[in-house]
Structure formats: C-alpha cells, structure tokens
Write a structure and sequence with these properties.
Radius of gyration: 25 Å
Helix content: 25-40%
Distance between the termini: 78 Å
Strand order of the largest sheet: 1-2-3-4-5-6-7-8
Structural class: alpha/beta
Number of helices: 21
Largest sheet: 8 strands, parallel, barrel
C-alpha cells in the first residue's frame, strides 16, 4: 500500500474534452498560483491538441504559452502528451526533428513527457524516449488501451515490458475512450505489477461512467498514480473529478494528502471561466455508454460534434458513431487516439456524408494502409486496401527509417518567417496554418476566433435563431428542436428537426427575404441564381468536381488545359484536420478552375470543370 499521487488535467485534457480545446492562456494564468500550491504530482498543461488549437483557432504562440506556464508554476512538474514519432502533428517526422522538439519542449518547461503511439507500435516511440532521457527529463511510456479481438492482457503486458526495457520511468494505461471496466482494470494492473517494476499511472476518461470505480480497483491492485480533472471541466467525456477522488481516498491507506477545500477554490474560478466558452459546449460530452461500442475518445467527441455542426450535419452524429467501429475493423482495429481517431473518424464521416462507403478515401487512410503509421494491430480488409492504394507495396520497416533528416530543410523553408528554432518546429508541425500563423504574428495581425456572449448571440438575428420552440397549429401544440441544416444560400434548404421527439427532414424554399442588418425588405419570389454565396457556380453537369465535406483547399494539382482521367487526383482539401484528395469526375480536359489554395469550399459548389474529349 502507498499514497496515491494525482496528476491534474484541467489545463489540457479537461478543456480538450469539454470545450474543443479552446481554453486560452489568459484564463489559465490567474489561477496558476493556487494550482501550484496544491501539491499535485504533475499538471498536464501542454501537448495533445493544444498546440494545434493555439495556432489554428486561438492565434496564440504555443511555445509562449508553455514559457508563461513554466514561470507561473515554479513548484510543479509540467506534463505534456507526445505522440511519439508524430510529435504533435499528423505525420511521422524524422528522428532529428523528434530530438529537436523534445529538446525545445524541455528547454521551455516540460518536465514529464507522456509518450504513446496510436498503433502501439513501439518502434515509433523509441526515439522520443531516448531523447527525453538524454535531456534528463521523465519519460512515461503510455499503453493506448482498447478492446478488440486482438487486444488482451498478454498483449498489453508485452508492451509494458518493452517500455521498461527502453528506459521509461513510469508506465501509463491510457484509456482515452473510457473502455476500462473495474474488473478489467484490476486484472490488467495485477498482471503489470507481476511483470514490471515501474510505477503504474492510470488515465481513464469518464465517458462510460466507470472511471472512478476503475481507479479504486486499479489502486487496490497496485497502481500508485491517477489522472483526474477539476470538476469544473471533469466527468463525462473528461475525467473523474479531482475533488471526488480526493474525498474517496481520504482516510484510507491510499490518501492523496491533498486539501479538498483548496481544490474547491480552484473549481469556483474555472466554473466562471467556462461560461465564456459556452459556444463550444457540446451535448455529446456527458456520460454515454455507447462509447463501449464506438470507442470514440473523450478528446475527440467535442471536436467531432463541433465539426459536424459547422457542416450543418450534427443530426447525423448517430450515423457517424455507428460507422466508426466498421471503419476501425476495416483498418485492423487501431486504438482510437490521435491521429488514428481522426483518421478513422474522418473516413467514417465521409462514408456517411457521401452515402457510399469509401467512395472518397482520405490521404491519411491511404497512408495508413501503406504502413506509413506502423503495423496495424489486426488484419486489414484487403478489399479496402486494394481500393485505396491498388497494388502499391506496403512498407514493413519502422516508417521513420525511410525519412531523411529534415531540420536543415525546414529551417531553410521557414527562414523568412521563423525567428527561432521553436518557430521552425511550429512550421514543421503544421506547414500551412503554421506559416500563416507566423506571418500574421510577424505582421502584428493575429486575431483569435471570437468569443461571443449569449446576449450578443440573441441580438445577432442574422446569425442566430431559436433552435428549440413550440408551435401551435389548429389548436395542437408541437415541440420542435432544430438539430441541423443544409447550407445557407440554397434556394431549397433542408432543415433537420425533431417534432415531439421524432426525427424529420423539412425543405424550406425561400420566397422572400428581409435584410436583417439594415432593416430593409425585399419582396417577391427569389430569383434562381447560378452561383453560390461564394460566387462559384453550382454543379450543373457530370464534369463538375465537388467536395463531399466543407473544408479548405490545400493543393490545386491541375490547371486549365490539362488532360485528366476519371479518378485522377485534381485537388486536395483539408476537412476535420485530415487531407482528402478529390478525384476527377470524368475523363477529359480541365476547362475551368474555380478555386485557389487556401479557399474555403462547401459541397454545393463546382470547384473545377472537366469537358469530355
């Protein structure tokens, strides 16, 4: 028996799980003094999706966030989540980039590196572990826990033994979706304690409602470290609340020794702060036992719901959640954790939105099936692999072995916009959005996404309208809840509603319009237009190339006059953080290109046109 140590996650995984990683540094710093005084084993405050969110949405320098937190938390270990060879991006990086990233993370304030690989392919964490040990920091090897026909206790014990042999200081059971049960936790921890000598750290999301019970059983079996999140951002898709676990272990041989009242003062602060981020709240972040089937991790669910909402397709969430396990099986049962959760999730969305499974296949799925992320845990569906990559040879070596050193090349590419090695690494993680971020920072024009007050939302009728109301017709009252809609600007726009709990689709045809902002009015039937809101033409013939999902153009691969064959890649679009190649709809000549790199596009637009020869 031993005292249980607590890692607090409110500065990273808590807000990633509950408000789509939108908590800003300015709302972290005022409470750091109190957090620093509690006595947590560590404070997880960096890594995961926070780096991406800082650059993409918040327009904050993620390295600056880290240095500010380091200064504000002088007595605490700062912990980060590192994706092994993926670092914090969505591809594998060369070993010299991995070593440089670890060095700079340590220089700027990281003490504990929790290192995992989404495939549990430990070849992909070896360089990271070695780099952490070389800079004298704590390396925690993390097992990506999942359930499938190929994942059992013997499999996980084998991983832990390899991590111990690599030189890891602790072993984390990373249950990112909340799949552990009390009994499976007890059995796994018991087996690990018999096989390795390292301390065991439990990380389990509360999505299924089981995490607190799992912690108790795991502690009784010998785990000495647990991850919790302040209740202001805890429970549901996040983690068991810190306060609850402190109280549960009080007076037992495992007493954390932490002061509950002081933690509650922190809770009061974050409860008020969270109100600022109401627009990022999701109805899918509560307890949901469906996770035991779909396995969508807590850090993904709030982002997935926000992305579907942006596409006017939130009503199709249940279809996506049902499709995710099918895609996962096709890909050989990878654990669903970044980046495989995005790879599987985005493909599932495409399968649902296009109405045909694998009609459109993301570049990341193709790379996965080529072995570029490592070895799949189970057997891959060979029909899907053939459809995606044809007869291309699948690699079997460690993917990074095929990569030449990159740092010098990256430094050259970023020379005009990077002021430091940290800037180069930001560019390396996200070449397009990172470049834009650095350019805007240098020009002093960074502008974060708006945080709207509820009062402003209610008065901004041009953007917001009631989404739940009662209507009375012929003396009968119906309860209406809007769950999604098609794209504004369409003459006939679909709206998805629940009528007294029954899902329905209604088509709204605009006959007249009122100019809300200026108070003017235009009467009469709306004339049909050949162009969309963006000014691009609507698809009118078989040669029009469209996208299945809203996104951003990252590459235009053809120009007017080029000859293409049906199925040739002509555009690359980024949607839901994944790149998807869009193919030519028919064989012929490109006669019009309506987009450029960086353009935002939607499914109702013609992106380019092909004339048959």
């Amino acid at each position: 028996m031993a005292q249980v140590h607590v890692s607090e996650l409110v500065l990273r995984d808590g807000h990633q799980s509950m408000i789509a990683t939108r908590l800003r540094t300015e709302d972290m710093l005022p409470i750091c003094k109190q957090l620093d005084a509690i006595g947590f084993w560590s404070l997880e405050a960096w890594g995961g999706a926070t780096f991406d969110a800082c650059v993409r949405y918040l327009k904050e320098d993620p390295w600056e966030r880290l240095t500010k937190l380091r200064k504000a938390l002088p007595n605490s270990r700062i912990q980060m989540l590192l994706r092994g060879q993926n670092l914090l991006g969505y591809r594998h990086y060369s070993d010299d980039v991995v070593r440089a990233f670890v060095q700079k993370s340590a220089d700027n304030g990281v003490d504990v590196f929790r290192i995992f690989d989404a495939m549990n392919d430990l070849r992909n964490i070896k360089t990271s572990v070695e780099a952490v040990k070389q800079v004298g920091k704590h390396a925690e090897g993390a097992i990506s826990y999942t359930t499938s026909p190929v994942h059992d206790i013997a499999y996980f014990v084998g991983l832990a033994k390899e991590m111990e042999a690599m030189g890891c200081d602790t072993i984390a059971i990373k249950d990112m979706a909340g799949l552990l049960t009390p009994q499976s936790t007890h059995d796994l921890v018991t087996a690990l304690k018999q096989a390795i000598k390292l301390p065991i750290h439990l990380h389990s999301h509360a999505t299924s409602g089981l995490s607190a019970m799992c912690f108790i059983k795991g502690i009784e079996a010998g785990a000495t470290m647990i991850d919790t999140c302040n209740s202001s951002f805890g429970e549901g898709a996040s983690h068991s609340s810190t306060e609850s676990m402190i109280a549960a272990l009080k007076g037992t041989p495992y007493d954390t020794g932490l002061d509950l009242r002081k933690v509650q003062e922190i809770t009061a602060y974050f409860r008020e702060v969270r109100k600022k981020y109401w627009q990022f709240e999701s109805e899918f972040t509560g307890v949901d036992t469906r996770v035991l089937v779909n396995q969508v991790p807590g850090g993904m669910i709030s982002n997935l719901s926000n992305q579907l909402k942006d596409q006017g397709a939130l009503n199709r969430m249940d279809e996506v959640l049902a499709e995710i396990p099918r895609v996962r099986e096709d890909l050989g049962y990878p654990p669903l954790v970044t980046p495989t959760s995005q790879i599987v999730g985005t493909q599932a969305v495409l399968n649902v939105m296009t109405g045909s499974r694998y009609k459109s296949i993301t570049n990341e799925v193709k790379n996965y099936l080529m072995g570029q992320y490592g070895t799949a845990p189970g057997k891959v569906n060979e029909e899907i692999r053939k459809l995606a990559v044809g007869d291309a040879k699948v690699i079997t070596c460690r993917p990074a072995d095929l990569l030449e050193p990159e740092m010098v090349k990256l430094q050259t590419e970023a020379d005009r916009i990077a002021h430091s090695d940290e800037d180069v690494l930001t560019y390396a993680m996200f070449p397009d959005i990172g470049k834009t971020f650095l350019q805007e920072r240098n020009a002093g024009s960074l502008k974060p996404e708006a945080l709207l007050t509820k009062e402003a939302a209610h008065t901004n009728a041009a953007r917001y309208a009631p989404n739940e109301f009662n209507i009375t017709l012929h003396g009968e009252t119906f309860h209406i809840k809007l769950t999604g809609s098609g794209h504004a600007g369409e003459e006939q726009r679909p709206f998805y509603v629940n009528v007294d709990g029954v899902a329905e689709e209604v088509i709204v045809e605009t006959l007249s319009e009122v100019e809300v902002s200026g108070g003017g009015k235009s009467n009469g039937k709306k004339k049909a237009e050949s162009k969309t809101v963006s000014g691009r033409p609507r698809p009118t013939h078989a040669g029009c190339v469209t996208t299945a999902m809203p996104g951003t153009i990252v590459a235009v691969k053809v120009k007017v006059g080029d000859k293409v064959k049906a199925g040739d890649g002509v555009l690359v679009i980024e949607a839901m953080k994944m790149e998807n190649e869009i193919q030519a709809s028919q064989t012929g000549t490109v006669v019009a290109v309506h987009v450029s790199k960086g353009d935002s596009v939607t499914p109702d637009e013609s992106l380019l046109e092909i004339q048959p020869d």
